[in-house]
Amino acid sequence: MEDNKRILPLLPLRDIVVFPHMVVPLFIGRDKSIAALDAALSHDRLIFLGAQRDASTNDPEEDDIYRIGTVAHIVQILKLPDGTVKVLVDGRFRARLLHFLPNDRYFQVSVEEFPIEQFEGATTEALVRNVVSSFENYAKLSKKIPSEVLMQLGSPDDPAKLADTVAAHLPIKLSDKQEILELPSAREQMEKLLALLAAEIEILEIEKKIRGRVKKQMEKTQREFYLNEQMRAIQKELGQGDEGRTELDELEEKIKKKKMNKEAQQKADKEIKKLRLMSPMSAEATVSRNYIDWLLSIPWQERTEDKLDIEAAEKVLNEDHYGLEKVKERILEYLAVRKLVTKLKGPILCFVGPPGVGKTSLAKSIARATGRKFVRMSLGGVRDEAEVRGHRRTYIGALPGKIMQQMKKAGTINPVFLLDEVDKMSMDFRGDPSSALLEVLDPEQNNTFNDHYL
Hints:
By secondary structure, this protein is an alpha+beta fold. The chain folds into 4 domains: 5-113, Roll (Archaeosine Trna-guanine Transglycosylase, Chain: A, domain 4), CATH 2.30.130; 116-240, Methane Monooxygenase Hydroxylase, Chain G, domain 1 (Up-down Bundle); 243-297, no CATH class; 310-448, Rossmann fold. The protein has 15 helices and 8 strands. A hairpin with a 6-residue loop joins strand 5 (85-101) and strand 6. Helix 2 (122-142) packs parallel to helix 4 (159-169) and helix 10 (310-320) packs antiparallel against helix 11.
């Protein structure tokens, strides 16, 4: 037998590639593997370590094992109570598996040393420096590499040994590690390692960014919680207690549940924030609180479903009023058009007549016939434009206009709205309410009606 050829027991490895110059603990449980260990111990304590192609194979065949592996020296062996064996191996040199020898108890193989081509010169030196620098950068980001390993890399005199040390400590796929083990020259190993290190560093930098973002978000949340707790403690000391805060939390919950439009939602959130910073006893807090109550009490989405049954409507009109044939005919005509045309712009009816002929009661009947809520707003003697459009919030005792007040009273966004005694309105220096009423009645304008208070 030639000097560089040996006959050794083979230990198939799962999920691990052992490199030369590495001391690695292994746990052995398979009968063939334990027999291979016993054979090595009885001879010169040398064993060939070859990685399995598929780790899930429990009883590997000859073709399941890679042909390039490492010849290792068994340093220490420890038999465990459960029948497994813990063995400490020290990788000596690369070897190529030439062929399997007949043996029933364990794998016995003929191997020869697989030398690595060494290169010297500027290119090799540049590659060595690059690998050391990249690995140090990786170690800083990973924080899983022991400091002793970095100290070993301080002044590398053997490029092949450097490549083995770096490859053994990188969390890369088994196939990549095996590929590095099989490369015939130190220069090729270095180039492969540089590419793998660059990819690992990029992944670690992305992970670091994500961790930083999550940490920042958590710190912000914790800071807000801490400040809120401090604020609660201060208010408790001032005798204001927790009741105000709980009430505000309830209001905030109600605002979320109330399906307001975007503008109203933003305004309500802004007022809640202002309220949190105010003392509950201040006058400004009362104004803000009243404003939020108004926003919550107005119907934003609530509506009643229309009953457009002409025969039922006629029956209701006849029950409530005797005679008035022309008026009833006109109302039924209008309801018939409503039934045919789903979207009707400006659904306004004008009743004219002396007092007591049944104008108001007819409006009530229309509401009853269509299944809608009924609200009546009397305009007799109204001389202030703010009665229609509402007062601005800067004034003490400011309220929304009568239109909004009646909408709140109705509780739906589609009631039958009666503007009673329109002809009795007057005007003075505070404005002309009839002009403000034009905005309410004009179908081109009333969909953008703005109340000054709200």
